[in-house]
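User: quick one, fold this
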Amino acid sequence: MRAPLICWIACCLPLVASTLKFEESKKEITVANDQKSATVDFPFKNESTGDVVIEKNASDCPCAAVGVKDSKLIYKPGESGTIRIVFNLGKVPETAEKLVSIYLKGDSEDRPSIKLTTRIIVPVVVELEPRSVTWDVGDKPEPKTVKVTMNDSEPVKIISMTSPDPNFKQELKTIEDGKKYEVIITPTSTKEAGMAVLQVETDSKSDNRRSHPVFMLVRQPPSKPDQAAPAKK
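Assistant:
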């Protein structure tokens, strides 16, 4: 049995592909509101015994431009390099994680050897709390309040509030000019389910988003756990 076992191991050895060892595969960066781009480097080293060939990359976001330092794609044992990702922050309006896949020679389309994740933290300039207001069908059409806080060194004002649905009325209340506001939302009726979006637009010069949505919903009441289904006859 020893000879077949040795042969089996020998046959499997070529299946173990050479790869690259990264110092980090996940990074987190915080960007300024008026920042246009951000560069993130992922250093690596070929610690295997064979050459490693970088064939291509893929990103889950069109905001990422991916390159390799000095355009070098073949790395011999012991050689080091850097994957550089440049993010277009105009396409990253809020905090998010972005994934870049690196394909080495021999990788299949669904199994890249390397996955690099960047968490981009975008400071919130216009903070809405809550971002949605909800009523159940049959509720009293009472007003609900969305608090708007401007987290900027400069005053930021709300310049417009628009919604195509006349079934929700909005009122803007100034708490502290340029800093704090309240949006009072009242449904005209809660007899039927419905949903609409209110767009709150500001004059912020540093916010990547000039318009912020508030979701307004009249929904069917959720079923209670102790409500038994009617018996079938």
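User: anything notable?
Assistant: The chain has one helix and 17 strands.
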